[in-house]
Amino acid sequence: MKLFEIGFITVTLKDILDIGIVTFIFFKLYEMLKGSVALRLLGVVFSIFLIWKVVGLLQFRLLKSILDAFLDLGAIALVIIFAPEIRRFLSVISKNPLVERLIRHATAPATRSDSAEVYLEVVEAIKDIRATGNGALIVVTGKNDLSDIQETGDQINADISARLIYTIFQKQSPLHDGAMILHNQKIASVRCILPISKRTDISPEFGMRHRAALGLTEVSDALVIVVSEERREVSLAYEGELRKNVEYDDIIEAIISHTRQTISFTMLNK
Known about the structure:
By secondary structure, this protein is α+β, with helices and mostly antiparallel strands. It is 52% helix and 17% strand.
């Protein structure tokens, strides 16, 4: 449907939608990459793309063939260079309520029912770890896929038990460094590496475990439990927020609610 004309250019509703969608995508990319080296790289790529289009219009065949080859290889290079940003972008999209509902319907059938007894084992382990002055970093997955995080560690797929969790986080254990991933009521992986939060407003009292917990919850819907070996206190991280010195009842309630996807920091801060 023609809307208006600018000289010899006819503008249709389809053109307006096209421009609007492209503008929205570029705005979101700018928001996501603002302040990073990736934004400057994206600017260079966009400039090369514009030159390629102009060269095509002017029918410079040799130059166009060179740019064609460059852009073909550049597409692969971009995926490699922007891998962290792409992962972050997809994580943000997957946390959208509409997308979450679509994923939930697409990935049926239903998973195993939640069991409070299973996660009570986690709390019992945390009590013992805290009492002995050891640290721990435990991730409870949500709906977001964390397989890339799990692959950074050792996959064990073991039943959840207080004794096993406690043993893994002993300093003498070769598996105590890094994070433990709990998925589908199993200890899926241990010694996993989490992304570190780049926020500058984090209190200096928090160490690398807390920064890693915040980093993961900034890009996924995971719930992360942190046991501090220095202060012997337990903290919970969710949706980029951290609550320190939580009670054991709050931990089990948060885990069970999280696995049912009804958790919120309003509940945790009650």
